[in-house]
Amino acid sequence: MTSFPLQISRPIHPTGIWNWITTIDHKKIGILYGVSAFILFIIGGIEAMLMRAQLASSNLKIIDPELYNQLFTMHGTTMIFLAIMPMGAAFFNYLIPLQIGARDVAFPRLNAFSYWTFLAGAIILNASWFLGGAPNAGWFGYAPITGKAYNVGHGIDFWIISLQVLGIASLAAAFNFIVTIINMRAPGMTFSRLPVFTWMSFITAILLVLAFPVITVALIELQFDRFYGTNFFITSAGGNPILWQHLFWVFGHPEVYILILPAMGIVSEILPTFSKKPLFGYPVVILSGIIIGFMGWMVWSHHMFTVGLGPVANSVFALTTMAIAIPTGVKIFNWLGTLWKGSLTLNTPMLYAIGFILTFTIGGISGVMHSQAASDAQQQDTYFIVAHIHYVLFGGSLIAILGGIYYWFPKFTGRMYDEKMGKLGFYAFFIAMQITFFPMHFTGLNGMPRRIYTYGSEYGWDFWNLISTIGVLLLAISMVIFIYNIVSSWIGGEKASGDPWDARTLEWSISSPPPEYNFAVIPTIEYRDDWWEKKMLGKTSEEITSDDVHLPQPSYWPFIASLGLLIAGFGIILSIPVAILGASITMIGVYAWSFEPVNDPH
Amino acid sequence: MSEPNNHSTHEDTTTGLNHRKLLMWAFLGSDCMFFASLIATYLVYKGKSVTGPDPIDLFSIPVTSVSTFVLLMSSMSMVLAYAALTKGSLKGFRVWMLSTAIMGMTFLGFQVFEFRDFTVNEVKISCEENSPKYIELESKLSSKQKSDYKKQCADGIEEAHVEFGMTPRTNLFGTTFFVLTGFHGAHVTLGVIWLLSLFFYSFKRGAVSAERHLDVDLAALYWHFVDIVWIVIFTVVYLFGVYEGF
Amino acid sequence: MINEETSNHPTPKTYVLTALILSVLTAIEVGIFYITSLGYWMIPILAILSIGKFALVVMVYMHLKYETKLFTILFLSGLLLATAVVFALMILFRSF
Lengths: 602, 246, 96
What we know:
The complex is a heterotrimer of chains A (602), B (246) and C (96). Chain A has 602 residues and is mainly alpha-helical. Chain A is built from 17 helices and no strands. In chain A, α10 (348-369) runs antiparallel to α12. Chain B has 2 domains: 53-121 and 167-246, Four Helix Bundle (Hemerythrin (Met), subunit A); 122-164, no CATH class. The radius of gyration of chain B is 24 Å and the shape is elongated. Chain C is 69% helix and 0% strand. Chain C is built from 3 helices and no strands. Chain C has helices at 12-33, 42-61, 69-92.
């Protein structure tokens, strides 16, 4: 076995920054994902704060309308594709191999490629700020306002290309996790013993690989319209902008479940641990997750009730939408059943998990409200929808992710966070989020449309908008507390033991942070919640360390392949020779990668 | 079964299945959604073009049947290359592999020829008063093409040659047709590169062997997938396209 | 689970026979296409022939018939969903 003609010696023991660039360790990649996504989350948050400042009162002129359009587009795109999805990916990366008793993912280099490609997509999107203006057509980019005729400049081009690059990253990661979960489970880890977080991640990955090709095609069509003058969404040539809406939401609705299922998984791990009870109705939680994943494909047109699809289509999609609330409700009752008569420890992660149940239920109820096609006609494109999406994504996905960060913080860093500050941060966060988003229900039902940059005082929306803006300031303070807690604890927190929570799943059976090889001896699984059961039965053995585990070696090539995509992405928009250069770099990276053995022989 | 069994090794994974093969099947399932979105776009826009040409004005079913046949046969040749390799015949592998790649390139050649043919398409319309051909095409011709026809006939010739070509920009049919078949062609191109890489790689000692049949197996799965996508496109786009009742 | 990969794959003879059937089906497709008197019946007949060809390639050449069910599940989940999406969009756009 020889390597590719390019004789670059392999980075066997890299140090410093090369250690991170060439790493293929799922734990390090998980950390990279988490930290990058959190930084992008803060950028998206700043964009939101600027918008709230402009809306604090009627007729303000802090931000001009064009910039406002760019802000809400970038805020939505950033939060969904660059913050919540990759934060989910951070948890997948770090936890799935640990929870199933594996030493790494199935394709460690592909995993590194996913991360670097995600970063490339994030850079391309945010570079648009400095290269002629950010995209300005909203995060679902409805045709024809994304068309060349109505949208000159490069903003939409950056949006298209960055989403394509992010799609490659997400697809690569999702294939990787599907194979990892099917094929890397420790002996005895059957699907009926799989931790709930891993189960939900598995469903998420399947949704991803089926949903992303649809948005890829929609974006290709838009890109061809803009770059090469085709007619997909050009009405004068017979094209139909409604097709964009359909394709976008065929992808977009499963995407909603891609965002929420990992959060449900995280909550399903936190609640049993701090209730000292097994998860109530494990098989039902899994089954309802599968049903949600399946039914998520049948509801997309509820985003389009006001398009005029006709009474039959609207009724069908209204019914399926109401039906999908059932498996979601089932889960909520299972979580309540887990808490019921449990011996509760109300520490920070547990508070976040309980907060999730509360706010997510509110978001779910407003969701069922606009599943009625008739009443949705009043709510479409108002702040009521903005309130709903923030209750399910901010008060759903994000709150669970923050809880998850606290819960696994000892495992990630080997240190404990500050409990007092954690609780303070939670209460500040939870109250601030209600103050920010609950009034939007009122402004929405009072008719305030989303995406307007200002409004007149005669509408009477001033008061609740001011409350929302005050809420955002409080949210910012709560996030400062969160960040301070995480950073200071990471640097100087108390050392954490392997199992500080007396928890249930396999990742707690090893030291914190885990050794590079995760498990010195691959465990044999005998029970659901194996680690917990074995602790109860006194069957745990003294942890052993090992220097004799062969792990896949670091590699330059995933980084180089992604770097090529970054260059090609800019090239497609700005200069074709650069695009060819980038594509060639990616080709070289992929070739060298496929000829490079996982481990060099000695 | 005549094949030797020694290369059928049990993989050290939970299911005993190979990681890469599992990934390939998941990828193919995902790629179905990719082509489904393109085909759906084609179908919902079928017959919605504002100007011509329509499928019936351009398609030549006999020509496309030949290229379809070539791609089908390349699938057979691909599977024979794989069978030869698992039996340990490197020579047989190379012969079949090269013929697969050549058939793939032939298919691409047909596609390039067809695309070019469509863009430079012309239609002959006689200059007689109320020419049946003109009446048939009147609704499909653009105003530029109509004035071109009238200008030519004004010169007193019997039959005008009117430009009636199609590019991706001409109409919705052009847009959806070229993008759908173009992306299929891109898949075939990638497949040909993959097959040729394996072919040339096989001249390196031990690089392609019965023990490492999986490398070829994965390329073969991809190749057959490209073939079945074409089976669908041939029926849905070409045969249904020219059939007037649909 | 026992890995049955390649051990029970068919012989080259089967592959060639399959190719023969595929060729005949294609010939029938193109032939039927010229029988204009079939009218609307042409659509289902051509669709069934094409599905037959599709299935033959997937089951024999891609060995789906001979290998683990898991591959079939992975592929079919994509294929069936893809088909459903195409039909749903056609219904929503009143293409029928």
